[in-house]
Design brief:
15 helices, 12 strands, about 10% strand, 5-stranded parallel beta sheet, single chain, globular, Rossmann fold, 2 domains, alpha/beta
């Protein structure tokens, strides 16, 4: 039995997958704590894990803090105006996070499991306390010639260009973490060392990294070093006897399978505009719909009374998506994988960060329509374009066949089981 501390920071998609990993480790006899933001304490405790607090909760700060967390995770290249502001917000987010990660470990912590956002800080903690660690990122981050960094939106720059852009992305991440790393090392009594130095030490040592996505969507790059392994998705925990709320079951029973529309932690404050647009597109496509409120605040309150549209709050995608005819979403890594797992077609509406990358992957796999960039939903033809995509997704048997085939391949993977095996090797 090992006392394990998992650290994860950001929005729901950055945190929920680690509840599934933690529950699997706990079922195997390990003591597991998950350090994250206060907003996710109920989710952590429901999974049977000990909750430990991390500061900088995106849900209780400014709406754009979630974007800053994405910047810390993905490090888009700095640019004029908004990108520079985002980098400043990300740096502040990381500095606040550093102290919380140092406080989260206890004297009996025997292993650290680190998300992409927390790993550059957790490595200093592991060094100071002599604690073994394992990096568990949710998206491909190591440079490769196979594709450009995920924030490039899936557009290849050629093998040399892809690798160069990947190395640049890592250097930007190093700069984002520089101030926090300096303060953290001083607090922990460590000699000065830059994030780049610490990162390159781990690379030179061949430290194992387990990536929590599926090769169904992104095959393991051919030029990655030994030890960088793609193991499959880690699914958010939900109770084995969990069921959809009665109001949702009643709605599903009242007609043909509806279309899901939700934007997760994206589009804060745009609920009225997006709800009106979604309702108009659903009516034009003559399909029923379920709007998940999310951070945008989608609701039928902004639309004319319509018995064919239902608004819901938080519901496990694993329970809801298989009952849909198609899903419309922002294409975060976890939501994109959940759509594939459900075997239903996707209409991708990527907003930022790694979302265009996953949208392009879904389209190339044949399980999604052509992506509709979120900014295009403000154009005059947005209703017609979304309605056309809804019709394409729900009326094309070939796309559903592709989705069902991909779902069968995904079902054969056991990402959490791979983490358990790695943990037991480290414990031994």
């Amino acid at each position: 039995m090992t006392n394990i501390l998992i650290t994860a920071a950001g929005s729901n998609g950055d945190i929920a997958p680690y509840t599934g990993v933690g529950a699997r480790l706990r079922a195997a006899g390990h003591e597991v704590a998950l350090a994250t933001h206060d907003s996710y304490a109920p989710l952590v405790r429901a999974a049977g894990l000990e909750f430990r607090r991390l500061p900088a909760d995106p849900r209780t700060r400014r709406a754009d803090t979630a974007d800053a967390a994405d910047a810390a995770d993905q490090a888009p290249p700095p640019g004029p105006g908004g990108k520079r502001d985002l980098m400043r917000q990300a740096t502040a987010f990381i500095k606040e996070l550093g102290g919380g990660i140092a406080d989260a470990a206890r004297d009996d912590t025997g292993l650290l499991l680190l998300s992409a956002t927390t790993a550059p800080l957790g490595h200093h903690l592991a060094e100071a306390r002599g604690i073994p660690f394992l990096d568990l990122p949710l998206v491909p981050a190591a440079p490769t010639g196979d594709f450009a960094p995920v924030v490039s939106g899936g557009r290849s720059l050629g093998r040399w260009g892809n690798r160069a852009a990947g190395r640049l992305s890592l250097r930007i991440i190093d700069r984002l973490y520089a101030d926090a790393a300096r303060e953290m090392r001083a607090r922990l009594g460590l000699p000065p060392a830059t994030p780049r130095t610490v990162r390159r030490r781990a690379e030179a040592a061949g430290r194992p990294v387990l990536y929590g996505f599926s090769e169904v969507l992104v095959p393991r790059p051919t030029d990655w070093r030994t030890g960088l392994d793609v193991v499959g998705n880690w699914w958010p925990w939900h109770a084995p006897d969990a069921q959809l709320p009665p109001v949702v079951e009643d709605f599903l029973a009242a007609g043909p399978p509806p279309v899901f529309i939700g934007f997760g932690s994206m589009a804060g404050g745009e609920g009225e505009r997006l709800s009106t647009l979604a309702a108009a597109a659903l009516r034009r496509a003559k399909v029923r719909g379920i709007l998940q409120s999310g951070w945008a605040g989608l609701t039928t309150r902004h639309t004319s009374a319509d018995a064919d549209i239902l608004t819901i709050g938080e519901v496990p995608h694993a329970l809801l998506f298989p009952r849909m005819s198609a899903v419309v979403h922002h294409c975060g890594a976890g939501t994109a994988a959940a759509g594939v797992r459900a075997g239903v077609p996707t209409i991708p509406v990527p907003v930022a960060a790694d979302q265009p990358f996953w949208a392009a992957r879904l389209a190339s796999l044949g399980v999604a329509t052509a992506p509709i960039p979120f900014k295009d939903l403000s154009a005059d033809h947005a209703v017609a374009r979304l309605a056309h995509a809804l019709t394409q997704a729900t009326a094309a048997p070939a796309r559903r066949d592709h989705a069902l085939s991909a779902a069968r391949r995904l079902a054969a993977e056991d990402g959490a089981g791979a983490v358990l095996k790695a943990v037991e090797r480290l414990a031994a």
